[in-house]
Here is the input.
Amino acid sequence: MTKEYRLPEDVVAIHNGIKDMSIRGAGRIARYVAIALRKAAEGFGGQDVSEFLRYMDYVGAYLRGARPTAVSLPNAVSYVLSRLRRGHLASVDEGKRIAVSAADEFINYANNAVKVIGELGAKRLENGDVVMTHCHSTAAVSVITNAHRMGKVSKVYVKETRPALQGLITAKALADEGLDVTLIPDTAARYYMKKVDKVVVGADTVVANGAVVNKIGTSLLALIAREARVRVYVATETFKFSPYTLLGELVPIEVRDPREIVDEAWLKENHGVKVFNPVFDVTPPEYIDAIITEKGVIPPQASLLILIKEYGVELREFVDQLPPIKEEELRD
Ligand code: RUB
Here is the structure.
């Protein structure tokens, strides 16, 4: 049985904030996870190096359990924890220094990535473009606001994004930047698509084959954009590419409480009705024109190259450790 540790209050607050979505959006979740790991390292009391490593692994597993879909969360955990295993740790103090600097490095990288994505993405928009977006993505907002500063965006349609209404956050952020913003119900997206030139959305996870997992409704938006011959751009940091999918794992799709859709009283009155609330969906690569990352703009089919570049060494080590296939397993 794994030992349970008492965790610093800040770490528990970040875990709970991610779970209840007061900390939300894949990039922000990852940055807060790095902060939590830093606080956890700083809050460790003992001097035993092995115990420190076990404790940090425990914190990593605890944070990973907060929400299932955005791969930025486990990727941020691995970024910090893998640095603790790179060489022999002489002391707990050294381990703490490494964890703190890895967490800070990740946060700085993540903040800078959003800026670079904004600059690269803005180049893909053209003068007078009408944009449609979905949910609230910091990376997508960065692209749209950068393009606006270049005088390119004439109007943005923001889908309200039922059931949690993250579109309202986007609408406010873009209006505060001086953009011409129109908030629309999700169901009106096809009605307005004929006026749109580009769709820009974010990502929670990019799969090895270039499919993008993002807020529920993204795939439908991509489908109607394709029907109207409107380009679809996905803005995302490379730490949202999933190394697990390279090994054949599927992306778990979070299903949340039905009470986000209808209230308790309605549920009780209509207990014969099943209410289902999946909050992410998968957009196939054929429906995406380009993925805008801080390392460059790529066709979705090139996602594999990003994964090999970012995680190739770790994956090779993993594959090297797989047990050899026994001869009898090769026979049918
Ligand atoms: C948020 C969502 C966002 C991505 C990208 O879902 O789907 O589009 O996370 O956002 P939720 P960002 O509100 O359920 O977390 O670009 O900010 O990382």
In short: Residues 116-308 form a domain with the Rossmann fold fold (CATH 3.40.50.10470).
